[in-house]
Amino acid sequence: MSNLVARIVTAVLLGGAVVYGALHLPLLVMGGAFALILFGAALEWAALAGFRSLAARLGYALLTVGLALIAVFTLRGTGQPLSGLLLAGCLWWCVASVWIVHYQLRESPKPGDRMPLAVMGWFALVPALVALLTLLERGPPLLLALFALVWGADVFAYFGGKTFGKRRLASRVSPGKTWEGLLSAMLGTQLLAFAGAGLLASQPVSAVLALAAVTLLASVVGDLTESLLKRLRGVKDSGALLPGHGGLLDRIDSLLAAAPVFTLGLILMEQP
Question: Domain-by-domain residue ranges, the chain?
Answer without folding.
Answer: 3-270
